[in-house]
TrEMBL record:
Record has Cell membrane as a keyword: no
SMART domains linked: SATase_N
Enzyme Commission number: 2.3.1.30
PANTHER family: SERINE ACETYLTRANSFERASE
Family to which the UniProt record says this protein belongs: Belongs to the transferase hexapeptide repeat family.
Name of the protein in question: Serine acetyltransferase
A molecular-function term among this protein's GO annotations: serine O-acetyltransferase activity
Serine acetyltransferase N-terminal domain location: 14-118
Native organism: Albidovulum denitrificans
Pathway membership: Amino-acid biosynthesis; L-cysteine biosynthesis; L-cysteine from L-serine: step 1/2
Length: 269
């Protein structure tokens, strides 16, 4: 390893690891060289690579890649937490998704990861009062990835959304750190009410495929929501809920359900 690469590895081990994987991937499959160089190796930092991906995926006839790239670069320069959350999300996907074997995969191939990073830029715009740009990002993320996250929602770090198809997260939803959810999850309201109307999801929660969590309710830390459940009431910490409507059927079964991704509930039924 060169002295420069060694220095980068000490300062930013996640990005250094991604670059090492990218160079190996090009050696193994030269036909991917153009994509991997433009997506990873051409960029000095993860933030710059994310800006490129954001602009490439969300550009349209209504908004050019150049403008979107400038927006993303501005966001990452203004808020270092965006880059740190992106790194935590990569590690989360690598740790929890058995289909993820390299750090570079979420950055290049996984729409759940890319959608969450694009949402983060939209949320930054929302916080800056740039509401129309934030809505544009929401619209394009929904069109490009099939993931609809309102830019006003608050989402923590270490997030893993597996498959990510048909995810819906409403404006006043709050999602804690180290949360895992599968496809077709909805964090929504219950009708036409205004104001604070969406769920608050605690840290370390596992939400199974197709689950619907509706209304201004609280889901406690390190709980589990079984696939296909409809949750309409508060969920205590460290419990498993299942059914339509969902009811507590037992303990969460482990200290960190979102990290272990254990969705079996027959031993508690």
């Amino acid at each position: 390893m060169s002295e420069k690469r060694a220095a980068i590895a000490r300062v930013d081990p996640v990005w250094s690891h991604i670059c090492d994987e990218a160079r190996a991937a090009v050696r193994d499959e030269p036909l991917m060289g153009g994509l991997i160089h433009s997506g990873i190796l051409h960029h000095p930092t993860l933030e710059r690579a994310l800006s490129y991906r954001f602009s490439l995926k969300l550009a349209s006839g209504e908004m050019s890649e150049q403008i979107l790239r400038e927006i993303a670069d501005e966001a990452y320069a203004a808020d270092p937490d965006l880059g740190q959350s992106a790194r935590a999300d990569i590690v989360a996907v690598y740790d929890r998704d058995p289909a993820c074997h390299r750090f570079m995969q979420p950055l290049l191939y996984f729409k759940g990861y890319q959608a969450v990073q694009a949402y983060r830029i939209g949320h930054w715009l929302w916080g800056q009062g740039r509401r129309d740009l934030a809505y544009f990002v929401q619209m394009r993320v929904s069109e490009a990835f099939g993931v609809d996250i309102h830019p006003g929602a608050v989402i923590g770090k270490g997030i893993m959304i597996d498959h990510a198809h048909s995810i819906v997260i409403g404006e006043t939803a709050v999602v804690g750190d180290n949360v895992s959810m599968l496809h077709s999850v909805t964090l929504g309201g219950t009708g036409k009410e205004d104001g604070d109307r969406h769920p608050k999801i605690g840290d370390g929660v596992l939400i199974g495929a197709g689950a619907k969590v509706l209304g201004n309710i609280h889901v406690g830390d390190r709980s589990r929501i079984a696939a296909g459940s409809v949750v309409l009431h508060d969920v205590p910490c460290c419990k498993t809920v299942a059914g339509v409507p969902a009811k507590v059927i037992g303990d969460a079964g482990c200290d960190q359900p979102a990290l272990l991704m254990d969705q079996l509930i027959d031993r508690e039924s």
